[in-house]
Amino acid sequence: MEESIKTLVLTGYRSYELGVFQDNDPKIEVIKKVLKERLTAYLEEGLEWLLIGGNLGVELWGAQTAFLLREEYPEFKIGVIFPFADFGSQWQEKNASLLTEVKLKADFVEAVSHKPYESPAQLKNHTQFLLEHSGGSLILYDDEFPGKPQWFLKDALDFSAKRPYQIEKITMDDLQNALSEG
Known about the structure:
By secondary structure, the protein is an alpha/beta fold. It contains six helices and six strands. The protein has helices at residues 26-44, 58-69, 93-105, 120-132, 149-162, 172-181; strands at residues 7-12, 49-52, 77-82, 108-111, 136-140, 166-170.
């Protein structure tokens, strides 16, 4: 890692993009293991804040992982920054309760737009906000498997072309390697 990142954005695939539909899916444990390793490395380098947008999948699993890391790093803070005011209100009960649990444990919860969803511009503004308020991003994304995180990654790459900004990807190979390590 080049320069110490104080605030890191975590994003990646949604659970359905990874074919994860049950809380006990073994893929989740592999993803959490890799996230724990990466986040620990950032914490050792001075990470203070983790920001997520609240999406199902990598972001919420990352928040759960971050909450566990607080035992070892009590100063570690987690922020949930939603793109719009009623984010998650349409979710089924199981997913909504997971989001509520994360919101209750987070140190900071806010929405970039205080209006309900109106247009994709809110999503674009959300990404811009996260980029401007962080020093880097950790993205579970593999170029061979396009999905929703590609839009954040594209904006992050554009952003990093104009100013210092670190982008680290976790790929399918990284997950496979973690799985074979046991």
